[in-house]
Structures
1.
Amino acid sequence: MPAALTSKRYQVEGPADAIEFCFAQGWSDGLPVVPPTEDKVRALLEAARLAPTQEIGFVAHRAVSITAEKVAINAVLAGCRPEYMPIVVAAVEGIADPRWSYHGPGTSTAGAGVLMIVNGPIARELDVNAGDNLFGPGWRANLTLGRAVRLVMRNVCGSRPGTLDRGTLGHPGKLSYVIAENEADSPWTPLHVERGFRAEQSTVTVMAAEAPRQFYNQLSNTAEGVLTTLADDMRISGNVMGQPHYCVVLAGEHMRTIAGDGWDKKRIRQFLWEHTQNSHAHLKRTQRMSGALQPGDDARLRPLLVSPDDILVVAAGGRAGAFSCYIPGWSSVRSSQAVTKEVKR
Amino acid sequence: MIEILDPTVEVSARPITYVDRPRSLEGKRIGLIENTKFNSDRLLARIGDILKAEYGAAGWTMFRKHNSSVPAHDEIIGELSRACDVMVAGVGD
């Protein structure tokens, strides 16, 4: 006898009415949802071998306990297949981790999305896209996994746009913002291995993040050339007075160019950190740093990030096209740290 | 007919007991919680000065949070409870 589901139940005429009912209750992100019937919810719980009462996370700032039952209901709403549930669970563990610091990115006017980077075998097994149209559309896993996490934030943690979620602009990634690393083609150490996991483990990394910003370099055939363009684009982006993170996503052509020169991820990070520093004079002239210009401000440099290790480098995106992107993290130093969790199956 | 499950959490009520508010700020030690945003320290210092000059507070001490999106950390709470009678905190940009 499986454990009872304790959520409140509602009777509706049929699936079409259920969709409208969910809109009327304020449970949707603005798109139609899949009606969360008991059989569907149970299938997700069973796929992750979780009891409905199991606590997946506790968000101290909001005093909210997130149970497996509520995660599963929201994952059904989002359109997840049962086998996606372990990834959703890992991501929810990530945003409930004190290092991610839920209250800020869940609430802030600066409008963070939850960038989710999936690594390890599960990404390939569940067809989490790491290639063409990386940020969408077209892949069910990518669009429903992130949607499920956002619906948990909305329906369980109370982060509703206009009330507790006060994003001034928001961005499309707040609907779903999921990518996988292209480990099959990448010449580099995968992100999760750099962050302490084994290659055969599956993980999801959550980072509070602004929208992706594409940059062009269709000219250079060297690592330094491509990364010089990237650094020049990155230098004035996000909170230039102190970013917690950047995620740099290098797509096929740039990946091959950079790797062809023998550069690994560590060298990429170091180069970008060194070449994205701003002079105090520029920051003051452009009204980003307070205070009057002082002698020497032109030579006094402020790093964009505290450490090169604050840059997450991910190989992903289509094989063709000399484009890649960078994603500024949300807010400022110490506000929210990227967190990597193992996907347990 | 189909039956669907509620994705939201039911809020459980919990009583909160407030400390009695002082009738007057006369001679009270004021704690100011600064949230690290630009100029928040200047605004709070101004408030502290007004509470001292116009309401007779004994003085004020400012405490700086780690950042604006987290609660005041334990050291601040401990120091507040030892060294202050009332506190001013707020959220703003």
2.
Amino acid sequence: MMQVKVWRGKADGAFQEFEVQRHASQTVLDVVTYIQRALDPTLAYRFACRVGMCGSCAMTVNGVARWTCRTHVDKVVTNDQMEIAPLRNLPVIRDLVTDMREFFDKWAKAKGQFSGALTKNEDFQKVKPDSPARVAVDAGIECIGCAVCYSSCDVVSWNPEYLGPAALNRAWTLVKDERDTHSMDRLRAVAGDAGCHSCHTHMSCTERCPKQISPTAAIAGLKREVSLALFRKTL
Amino acid sequence: MNAKTQTLLWVAQRASAAVLGICVLVHLATMVYAVRGGLSAAEILGRTRGSVAWLVFYSLFVLAIAVHVPIGLRAVLGEWLGWRGAAREWGLILFAALLGWMGMRAVLGVFL
């Protein structure tokens, strides 16, 4: 058995304690699901795919933001105790559910939408898989939007306007996308206090990303591209 | 403040950091040399007065400080005290001028 403290209520809520049986290969999401189905059906939490693809189930487990569906209890439990809270840096709706609007609105502010030059009547534009620009974003395009990086970022907590690691990583993947036509607008959007120049290179995002992406490297790339644009007088 | 100005500030801070890295090393090495060699204040002044090389070196040092410190402080004020906006920028411009004035006063004090 283990003691599991689960956050209940909104930002001013409190932890509620549950006793949960331990099993082999049990995930943190299994624990939360068990609590809701067997112990307290009013517990609110969010999940969808259960296999690490959708990015819905991220929570703060023992103080660290994690994807709960791929986090084994064995890996995080200490002295048969575990604490599960909603993600940091996002408004809490209820229990373990956070409001993700701000997180995704910042993707839009970072010009995270692809805009190509071709129409559906034309053939696909080919991108060489081994071209340097494509290789530079090989990892970055695997982002599942779980907000673990955003929740782990101290700059987000200090500067609410800061776009955050995920939005900047998304911008980086588009800046390096040779099919995209709005790179300069994007560089303007991600420069400055709310963008890449506010990153302190703490690397918490890189440390915690469940997909082993390095948003820090993406942000460094954006700083480089923005500086080059400044010197070329195209910014 | 627009993207261009903010990017320029970032580049200026990185560039001034590179200059400061070299200046601090030279400054420390000079101090260690002066202390270990047992140079008196008069002997030190004898070497710095009228020396254009030291004037240029320490003027560059002061300029790098006047650029680097306010830009760093700008982030600290924004992130820790929540102070943003035009008042902060003007305050920091004044602070940069103060650093430059105090620094150059010291430099000229040992040159003239």
